[in-house]
Amino acid sequence: MFSRNLHHSTIRRRGFTLVELLVVITIIGILMSLMLPAVNSARESARRLQCGNNIKQLAMACVTYDSTYKVFPPAVEVLPGIDVSNGITTTNIRENWVMLILPQLDQLGLYNDIETLFNDKEKQNASKDIANTTLKTTLSNGREISIMECTKTTLASMLCPTDVSTRNKFIPANGNGREYARGNYAINMGARFARVYPFNNEGAKQWGYTHNRGVSGIHRSIGQADVRDGVSNTILLSELRAGMNSVDSRGVWAIGIPGSSITACNAWWGDDPGPNCLITASDDIWGCNSDNCRPRLKMPCYTSSSGGDQATTRSSHAGGVQTAFCDASVHWISDSVQCAGNQDEANIKNMNTRAQYMTVWDKLILSNDQQTVKGDMY
């Protein structure tokens, strides 16, 4: 008995040594480091797919609008008699293209509220625009509505899940408490500054020129039947990035100015050509300052004192941008697509030299340049 108990008492359980434990931890760390990029890539692929679905939904809404009114929604409506030859500001604009397609986005209630506010005959406001904090009314059922409540409403279909800046509302400096929800998609105005497209002066003609016209302008637009280059060859919508801080007006769904919900002057004219352009001070936008002009983050900008008048498409996805063409098809456009700004207008305007000087990006932006684009060119 004694010897047997003594034998059992000498048996010891052997555990992991410190060296073995460190080896196991190291192996686990290596495996996790190998798996993490794959996991992040899968997540980004899912976000990019959702972004593509969003822009597809918006394009389909625009196509449905066209089937009803025979034109795509105008980029922005302005108050009667307003001259925007010096740029668009929020003190003279009304509905933008997003507001006009709200019924097609299952947002009929929000659309009705906005239309009621803008068209309330009993209100004698001198300026019924989206910047008017007193633009409010009480409906027959006793519910109070205001333009500020409408424009700060978040629309899930307008948000790219990769762009984390959309979490922050746009709050203009000296805006009397105004807030606006963000958005990540813009309609294509064309190759020239927004300020040359007013509907009440000579500039109106310029938007229609074959070397200027995109799809949707100020107080005017074209329909699928007017896209002479083919609806499958012309950009209708593209991505935008939300502003880097609360005073940067880029990426605001309810404001119809370039950088907020419009792209303009991002083709052959100007210094902002192509997706994610990195030229210093390329986006001319309302609210740009040294805090949000960040070229390394693909967000260079220049302060436009009279409002936004130039902005290109920008994306939080790496390497390019999501776009929707006029047939509602969705396409990925690489940052390396052929593009060049500040080209001589005479060469672009002349049909005999246009093919030689116009880039692939120019052809995708313009709706009546009469130049063909193959799918393998972008």
What class, by secondary structure content? alpha+beta
Shape: globular
Distance from N terminus to C terminus (CA atoms, Å) equals: 88 Å
Characterize the main sheet: 5 strands, mixed
Identify the strand order in the major beta sheet. 9-5-8-12-13
The ordered H/E elements are: HHEEHHEEHEHEEEEEEEEHHH
Mean pLDDT: 87
Report the total helices.
9
The tally of strands reads: 13
Strand content: 5-15%
List keywords for this structure.
single chain, 378 residues, alpha+beta, five-stranded mixed β-sheet, two-stranded antiparallel sheet
Word description of this protein:
- The radius of gyration is 26 Å and the shape is globular.
- The strands form 5 sheets. Strands 9-5-8-12-13 form a 5-stranded mixed β-sheet. A two-stranded antiparallel ribbon has the order 1-2. A two-stranded antiparallel sheet has the order 3-4.
- The protein has 378 residues and is an alpha+beta fold.
- It has helices spanning 2-9, 18-69, 97-100, 108-119, 147-151, 203-208, 345-349, 354-357, 360-365; strands at residues 76-78, 93-96, 136-138, 144-146, 185-190, 216-217, 220-221, 235-239, 262-264, 283-285, 301-303, 320-325, 330-334.
- The chain has one domain (47-372).
